């Protein structure tokens, strides 16, 4: 009797364990994927070595590219940072929003009523966080950095935010955590002005002897850590960041966020500052690229990507994490400081052979590295389909089972996950409020007033008195203007362009670049 009962108990116990494990696996399979957007700053199409267009080596980013889907026709929505970030988070073209321009100490350019990626994910039980560069404005009017700052990232759906307010080359040079300046001494309040300096405060213009990095244009305001910035700042001494430690600082916050939320479905917008000016890689990266601070900053950024990946791997969630990697706009070498970026570029091509760069309507302004990675879910592939950052919100919505679709974004989730589907047929490109149009292999750039080449950054802007028409299939570098040879196609492109824009395009005034 004992043997019979013992033998009967074992199958019953096994059955309970099997049922429990099956239910556990079933529940685990229902957990929505973690989503991380890694967003670099001014990284060009040729700056990632997986694209095989430059000479820099980026092994950690390459791992994502070679084991995921590497898009060769991936676009930011603008050739400058604030508009691109607006479009990424909202799925709306930046040219539709008159406020979506380069921000310098300005108020929030995203309306708090708009749907954003973090809002959508938060409504679907995600924890949401941003670490790194923000540059979408803060507050509604003039910002008081000495009290809680609102609205900002937390009012747009982020549960947690740890940011720099604008850019590394602008004041105030402080970190802001959930609306409050980190380490602020109330007895040493922060004062900021972008027109008038404060009494007895040294500037790059008046005190060049105090500089560690010489300014070239526009960056001759307050000196912090031996670097002069855009704008003027006084006070907040204990709150000021260390430039050379910035990458480590943001990385630590990103890793902590991941570890604190590993048991939940989470979204992290990891917004790197590299290789935007001033390029201040940590000393352990100095000289690693052979190209000066810009190249070293990219090597540093690549290392950060690797460290983030290892964190996901070490805590066992890499298999359930979708990573999207891209850049806010194309590359620029001299963007305000003398840092040997031009002199030491060598054979490297930040633009990857594309024409133009940051601020430009030519391809290098908005065609950027674009990668999707999900270990053991996304199969390695190279896609030449057109995809834009404006599509990310709608695509994420589909991936998590939401019916929401943004105004301008397409659901390209199948393309992102399985390399299936046609991608986009057409796309509006934007640079400093000017717009152009891509339809299939064709690109049309309308006439614009202004200099053809920016004197400060030495980049072709795409301005001219006449329409420009290019076929990228035969002329990826946009050398041959076909507007005169193919007037029928040009007319077709203009008609389609104006249908989307909603009004006939008008020439713009000369544009000042910072």
Radius of gyration of CA atoms, rounded to a whole number: 24 Å
Can you say what the CATH homologous superfamily of the largest domain is? Alkaline Phosphatase, subunit A
Tally of discrete structural domains: 2
Count of helix runs: 9
Which structural class should the secondary elements be placed in?
alpha/beta
**How much strand content do the residues show?**
15-25%
Question: In a nutshell, what does this entry contain?
Answer:
Helix content is 24%, strand content 17%. It is of the alpha/beta class and 514 residues long.
Structural overview:
This protein has a ten-stranded mixed sheet with strand order 6-5-4-3-11-1-12-13-2-14, with helices on both faces. The longest helix is centred in the N-terminal third of the chain and has 29 residues, at 2-30. It is 24% helix and 17% strand. The protein has 514 residues and is of the alpha/beta class. The protein folds into two domains: 34-179 and 245-425, Alkaline Phosphatase, subunit A (3-Layer(aba) Sandwich); 429-501, 2-Layer Sandwich (Arylsulfatase, C-terminal domain). Helix 5 runs parallel beside helix 6 (293-314). Residues 1-29 and 505-514 have low confidence and may be disordered. It contains nine helices and 18 strands.
Task: Detail the topology: elements first, then pairings.
Layout: H1 2-30, E1 34-40, H2 59-67, E2 69-75, H3 81-90, H4 117-123, E3 127-133, E4 160-164, E5 176-177, E6 180-181, E7 191-193, E8 223-224, E9 227-228, E10 232-234, H5 246-260, E11 266-271, H6 293-314, E12 321-327, E13 370-373, E14 381-388, H7 392-399, H8 413-418, E15 426-431, E16 434-439, E17 442-445, E18 468-471, H9 487-501
Parallel strand pairs: 1-11, 1-12, 2-14, 3-4, 3-11
Antiparallel strand pairs: 2-13, 4-5, 5-6, 7-10, 8-9, 12-13, 15-16, 16-17, 17-18
